[in-house]
Design goal:
Layout lengths: L18 H28 L5 H47 L1 H14 L4 H23 L11 H25 L5 H24 L3 H26 L2
Helix pairs in contact: 1-2, 1-5, 1-6, 1-7, 2-3, 2-4, 2-5, 3-4, 5-6, 6-7
């Protein structure tokens, strides 16, 4: 017989707790590569006599501005989600205080909809309510769990750090490539970086690596191609 006084060892390693920072990191890295690659290649090709110092300064300026923008945007958007979650929890706490019977019926109904009999659903609702009513309603009524809670600071730091890491790749490629082939080399290196980024993100999230790499590489190449087309049309 298992010892009920000791928690069961759970050997499975789920990846859902990575969702918050992984999404921000993938977005930041890809944006850093694509946007800064377009910036430094444009300066290297369009500005006559642009040297390594000018290209480096342009790349660093784009890196700093982009990282700050990504961090601010990610923080504001995720904080909005956190505010909505907090408001929902406050409302639910008030309902539990004012009308606990209705809330218990509501929780019972939720478990019945998931396949439990009425008596069992009622028993489960009563036990979970006795343990922590707000947690039960947050998880099963509102869909708010500790794993998937909005974490603005974590998302902002992940996005900004990933942007910086991604932006360093095209900057380095532009500085090291022969001047006549800056555009070609930097574009190729950036696409290769996008493929690697997509593969790593897929591996981290437990998805097929090749599919993730091709997906990110394809859309990154499309974005770079669109930027180049606009430049050609307007001669900039």
């Amino acid at each position: 017989m298992p010892d009920k006084s000791k928690p069961l060892v759970h050997a499975e390693h789920h990846r859902s707790q990575r969702v918050g920072w992984l999404r921000a990191a993938v977005l930041g890295a890809n944006d850093g590569m694509v946007s800064v690659a377009g910036l430094v290649v444009g300066v290297a090709v369009a500005v006559a006599g642009a040297g390594a110092e000018t290209i480096l300064t342009t790349g660093i300026a784009g890196l700093v501005a982009g990282a700050m923008s990504m961090a601010a945007g990610e923080y504001v958007s995720v904080q909005s989600q956190a505010d909505a979650e907090k408001a929902d929890l406050t409302l639910e706490q008030r309902e539990l205080h004012l009308n606990p019977g209705h809330e218990l019926d509501e929780l019972t109904w939720i478990y019945e909809q998931r396949g439990l009999s009425h008596d069992l659903a009622r028993q489960v609702a009563q036990q979970l309510t006795a343990k922590n009513a707000l947690d039960a309603h947050a998880r099963d009524e509102l869909g708010i769990t500790e794993t998937l809670r909005a974490r603005p600071v974590q998302a902002a730091l992940a996005s900004a750090s990933a942007f910086c890491a991604g932006a360093m790749l095209p900057i380095a490629a532009t500085l090291l490539a022969p001047h006549r082939h800056i555009a070609t080399v930097t574009t190729a290196v950036t696409i290769a970086g996008l493929l690697i980024s997509g593969g790593l993100a897929a591996w981290t999230g437990g998805a097929p690596i090749l599919k993730g790499a091709l997906r990110v590489g394809f859309w990154g190449a499309m974005a770079m191609g669109a930027a180049n087309l606009v430049g050609q049309l307007f001669h900039v």
